[in-house]
Amino acid sequence: MASFQSINSFSHQYQGSINFPQSKRIDLTRRRTLILTCERKNEFDFDQNKSGDTKKKNLRILIAGGGIGGLVFALAAKKRGYDVKVFERDLSAIRGEGNHRGPIQLLSSALAVLESIDVTVAKQVMDAGCVTGDRINGLADGVTGDWFVKLDLLNPAIRRGLPVTRVICRMALQDILVNAVGDDIVKNKSKVVDFVEESNKVRVILENGQHYEGDLLIGADGIWSKVRSRLFGAKDPSYSSYTCYSGLTEFVPPYIDSVGYRVFLGLDQYFVASDVGNGKMQWYAFHKEAPMNAGTDDGVKKKRLLELFGNWCGDVTTLIAETPEAMILHRDIYDRDMLYRWGAGLVTLLGDAAHPMQPNLGQGGCMAIEDCYSLILELDKITKLGSGDYEPKDIISALRRYEWRRIPRVSIVHNMSRMTSKILSSYKPYVKIELGLFSFLPSKSIAHPAIPAARMIVQTFLPIYLNWMIAGTGFW
User: Fold this and answer.
1) What is the DSSP string of 440-454?
2) Which residue has the higher pLDDT, 23 or 467?
């Protein structure tokens, strides 16, 4: 399997290839020395020095949520010398999600952002990941296993000098990020339940009653975000109409060297299989049905899956059969309607708190990482390398610019994830034709006349969409 070095020896040249202005470029080789020494009343209160001179104000950032988005943004803020604090309800629970949700896909654009933020951390992530973009990826017929559309993720990345798409265990990714951000910044067992915005600052209130003040608050606390509820009112997420079984198996299929991942298509169901490295395969089985309570099918998940997908090709049924019952997990898929306003005043959202989406495109984490970089660029504009002459109105303007820049790109991806779910599960390659009015005359299945046209449309437009995604156009 190709490594980052062998596939993408010129990945650090990507900055010019994605064409963002010189003023917005981030130095990849050194850390900006912006950290200002000052005496503080507490972690986020600034005081004067002993001589009576007022110290230059350093941006104080509060982050609700220690998932991928919150940690990446904290890393970006730390690298710039900003004062940052991450409040997370339970780090062990977040890392435990890796068992339930499986590895995360990092597209070339997201990896390029990580390189811009911290090249050392980006290398750790890429070394720990499994490259999938250097092999065949695409859509296939669930019953026959024949390819429907093959996708090229390698050449678009190499042409732009970007890292190649890969997957990484969520727990491994979060371990890398937590270690890079530091335990002094990530405050565990600290759930943000409310916030109060005052004239020139914002104060978060934790579940244990503690209060912390800062210049701005970032809600990165996921689909059940308390910050989002406080901003726009509590509202339940939308059920996607699909339940999802996921499995991780120590099985190496014979096609491992040629296929990265495949999405197998079927009517009202689809199946995703991906190499995740270290001799393991991860798969997801989506089935259209009413929501189920977790745990109601414990002990019979494999049996049910073999009933649902039993007539599918061997590449699907073998993965299910090779997965121990204990490694098959079940959850219902939810998302939320797209918001076209992410914040107010000194507060904004990023990642799943702003735009939770269905997992079929594997872009939730990527969009969160892009959010982080777009936001940090806007904050960089107002801090002016630590001059400290910014006002609350400048912070508010920076947050609104960030939202304005990100919403168009994210809304396209969000809508595509919903549309893709419907398209993937609407695949019906054959139709039955009744040959007569009498029961002794058999019906016959023929190829669906719409399939050739659908294949042509997908082959034409899906690569265009993927090129746009890989290039990262629109998140600067």
Assistant:
1) TSPEEEEE-TTHHHH
2) 467
Alpha helices (runs of H) in 11-54, residue ranges in sequence order: 14-17
Tokens 């943004």 belong to 73
pLDDT in tens, 142-186: 999 999 888 889 998 998 899 999 999 888 898 999 999 999 999
Closest CA to 344 of 227, 212, 472, 193: 227
Give the span between the Cα atoms of 147 and 347, in whole angstroms: 46
**357 domain-assigned:** yes
pLDDT of residue 121: 97
Measured CA to CA in angstroms, residue 98 lies from 101, 139, 252, 404, 453 at distances of 5, 25, 21, 32, 39
Diameter of the chain measured on Cα atoms:
102
Is 0.85 surpassed by the pTM of this model?
A: no
Q: Which domain holds residue 76?
A: 4-135+154-237+337-426+455-471
In a domain, 174, yes or no: yes
Q: What is the dihedral of CA 171, 177, 183, 187, to 10 degrees?
A: -70
Picking from 368, 355, 395, 391, the residue whose alpha carbon sits closest to that of residue 379 is: 395
Q: Give the full edge-to-edge strand order of the sheet including 347-349.
A: 186-187, 83-87, 60-64, 216-219, 347-349
Percent of the chain with pLDDT over 90: 52
For 360-416, the pLDDT digits (tens) are 777 889 999 999 999 999 999 998 755 567 899 999 999 999 999 999 999 988 888
As a whole number of Å, the CA-based R_g of the chain is: 24
Question: At 403, is the secondary structure helix, strand, or coil?
Answer: helix
Comparing CA positions, the residue from 85, 68, 383, 22 lying closest to residue 222 is: 68
Contact criterion met (CB below 8 Å) for 247 and 327: yes
User: In terms of Cα–Cα distance, which of 392, 422, 361 is closest to 104?
Assistant: 361
Q: Quick one: average pLDDT of 435-457?
A: 55
Classified as helix, coil or strand, 275 is strand
| Number of folded domains that form the chain | 1
Strand partners, 275: 281
In a domain, 36, yes or no: yes
Distance CA 111, CA 123 (A): 9
Q: Identity (one letter) of the amino acid at 244?
A: C
Which alpha helices (DSSP H) does 288-359 contain, by range?
Answer: 301-309, 314-321
Cα gap 273→146, rounded to integer Å: 15
CA angle (373 as vertex; 369, 375 as ends), nearest 5: 110
**CATH code for the domain of 225:** 3.50.50.60
Residue 188 lies in a domain: yes
